[in-house]
Structure to design on (230 residues):
């Protein structure tokens, strides 16, 4: 079980850092997907999104759920992540470069279980999922359901390079071998509503689905006083 959870975390981290800095991470800046991502990140005050990642092992499925809000007007994000009895909450204050996080587990743990911690944050946008739209190529489109479905691929070399940055002991070429097929639905307002793809790592299949909602209706994020230690 620990190996399954580790692989889920690896997939999550690889995808979320995969846009960093390598030459092979070329950007498809002319695509309609990149344009829609720009509209959401630059023109909206706020939105929410849910992520469901299912690890299929052949004998049981393990599901990781993320529920997030991005308050772009006030430069604050919030995410709650839960998997197999472990819940993580994160507030990121971009303006003050501070992250507030809490991990709660149903299995007990050390004295930090269920307590807020504060750390400096100098990273980029915590919603790295939406940045995947900059790296989708070979795109086809189909108009239906009041919007447009786009399908394309993300070069596996991009993920391999990202994984190598995370852990130099990992031979990423043996972990991610095929390009990833990805589907994106953009609504009539040119907002991304849904992204979905499947990736296989070490023979274990991961299904990922991201659903965006609450465009300019998700409201402001207020970091609770207990998170700040007040």
């Amino acid at each position: 079980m620990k190996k399954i959870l580790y692989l889920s975390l690896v997939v999550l981290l690889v995808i979320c850092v995969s846009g960093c800095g390598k030459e092979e991470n070329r950007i498809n800046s002319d695509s309609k997907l990149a344009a829609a991502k720009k509209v959401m990140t630059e023109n909206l005050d706020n939105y929410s999104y849910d992520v469901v990642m299912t690890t299929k092992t052949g004998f049981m499925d393990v599901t990781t759920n993320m529920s997030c809000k991005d308050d772009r007007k006030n430069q604050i994000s919030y995410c709650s992540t839960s998997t197999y009895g472990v819940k993580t909450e994160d507030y990121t204050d971009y303006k003050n470069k501070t992250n507030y996080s809490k991990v709660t587990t149903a299995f007990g743990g050390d004295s930090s279980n269920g307590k807020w911690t504060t750390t400096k944050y100098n990273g980029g946008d915590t919603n790295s999922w939406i940045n995947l739209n900059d790296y989708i190529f070979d795109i086809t489109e189909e108009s239906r359901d009041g919007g447009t479905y786009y399908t394309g691929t993300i070069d596996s070399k991009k993920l391999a390079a990202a994984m190598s940055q995370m852990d130099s002991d990992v031979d990423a070429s043996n972990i991610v071998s095929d390009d990833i097929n990805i589907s994106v639905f953009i609504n009539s307002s040119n907002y991304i509503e849904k992204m979905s793809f499947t990736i296989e790592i070490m023979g274990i299949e991961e299904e990922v689905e991201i659903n965006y909602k609450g465009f300019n209706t998700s409201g402001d994020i207020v970091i609770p006083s207990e998170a700040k230690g007040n």
Summary: The radius of gyration is 18 Å. The first helix runs from residue 2 to 17. Residues 1-6, 17-24, 162-170 have pLDDT under 50 and may be disordered.
